[in-house]
Write a structure and sequence with these properties.
By secondary structure, the chain is of the alpha/beta class. 41% of the residues lie in helices and 14% in strands. The chain contains 10 helices and 8 strands. The protein has an 8-stranded mixed beta sheet with strand order 1-2-4-3-5-6-7-8, with helices on both faces. Helix 6 links the parallel strand 5 and strand 6. Helix 1 crosses helix 2 and helix 5 crosses helix 6. It is globular, with a radius of gyration of 20 Å. It starts with a helix and ends with a helix.
Length: 347
């Protein structure tokens, strides 16, 4: 009964989203002069902004706090691999790996290690399983290893980091060479990807060939500049302009971080040193409150002599790539991501 009531509430909010998109279409001309977005992305962004301000008037992404530990954080999977692919589940001590392989692939020794996002509060969703198929196709039949790490509030820091490291050790223990692996992560998954690589670097272990990050949540202290400058711009985490309050997400962060020091590089990799890091590609939307932490990391990578590329998408929101090919910017982002990973794996 609780699950039914929960879904009923959020169905109503989904309806509000549809209404919001309609409103956005009517307002499109007034927004168009102020953005470089494509029309589909502009409509989607303003629709998201409107509905988020309806269902989440407190701002700051507090909807994630409401969902933490709820049935929607543990959705069952209905995923079935597409023809030509097979999936194998590997039970580790504390978490699960899913290994997606293309049958008869000549490149099964190449690996994409995919670390999913979700504010550290959501299990591996089918959305990422479908993305894994895209990763394999873009990378000429590479194997994709997905990790379903432990999530908060049931498990707090450093549980997820430990799981991601265990996943890496499974990869290298099973014959895959680090130079044949690209690590990718979005949002919280980007945080965990960075923590994995920093841990390997600090322990003087071989790093993967490269890292591909989408809007990594790297500053859990929320002190980076764009938490202030983008507070009225971000369509997902921000406030209405008339709200006049500071973005405060520490209570959300603490669900994952517990009592950990939020300035500790093991929690917030924006504060880490990046010498000896692997080649890195970062994609970020300029409308995100997370924008500046990606810029800070890229500057640290450059200062350390690391090969780094950053693609900024003007006016785009947090992990817009989740919309896949529905948006022109999404198509461009995935093409660039696939080209980067393929170049790293096959050069």
């Amino acid at each position: 009964m609780k699950l039914f009531e929960f879904l009923k509430v959020y169905f109503k909010k989904a309806f509000a989203f549809i209404v919001a998109v309609g409103i956005s279409l009517g307002l499109l001309s007034s927004f168009a002069a102020d953005t470089d977005l494509s029309t589909p992305s502009l409509v989607m962004r303003e629709g998201m902004r409107t509905v988020m301000q309806i269902v989440n008037p407190e701002g700051g992404g507090r909807i994630f706090k409401k969902l933490a530990g709820s049935p929607l954080a543990h959705l069952p999977s209905v995923y079935i691999p597409k023809p030509g692919y097979e999936r194998k589940k590997i039970e580790l001590e504390n978490c699960t790996l899913e290994v997606l392989t293309k049958k008869n692939s000549e490149n099964s020794d190449k690996v994409i290690y995919q670390i999913h996002g979700g504010a550290f509060l959501f299990d591996l969703l089918d959305l990422y399983r479908w993305q894994a198929e895209s990763w394999s196709e873009m990378c000429d039949g590479a194997t994709v290893v997905m990790i379903d790490y432990r999530i908060a509030p049931e498990t707090i820091f450093p549980g997820a980091v430990e799981d991601v490291i265990d996943g890496w050790e499974w990869i290298t223990d099973n014959g895959y060479k680090p130079e044949n692996v690209v690590v990718t992560g979005d949002s919280a998954g980007g945080n965990l990807a960075l923590e994995l690589l920093l841990s390997l670097r600090d322990e003087k272990k071989e790093l993967p060939k490269a890292a591909m990050l989408m809007s990594p949540w790297a500053d859990l202290s929320t002190e980076s500049e764009s938490y202030k400058t983008n507070v009225y711009i971000d369509p997902v985490f921000g406030f209405k302009e008339e709200t006049e309050k500071e973005l405060d997400v520490e209570d959300i962060v603490r669900i994952y971080a517990g009592d950990a020091d939020l300035h500790d590089p093991r929690v917030s990799p924006v504060y880490a040193d990046y010498s000896g890091f692997c080649p890195t590609y970062i994609q970020i939307g300029t409308a995100e409150v997370l924008y500046s932490e990606s810029i800070t990391i890229s500057e640290k990578l450059k200062a350390a002599g690391v090969d780094v590329t950053v693609t900024e998408y003007s006016g785009m929101w947090h992990v817009f790539q989740l919309f896949g090919n529905l948006l022109p910017e999404g198509r461009d982002a995935w093409k660039r991501a696939g080209d980067f990973a393929s170049k790293q794996l096959y050069s």
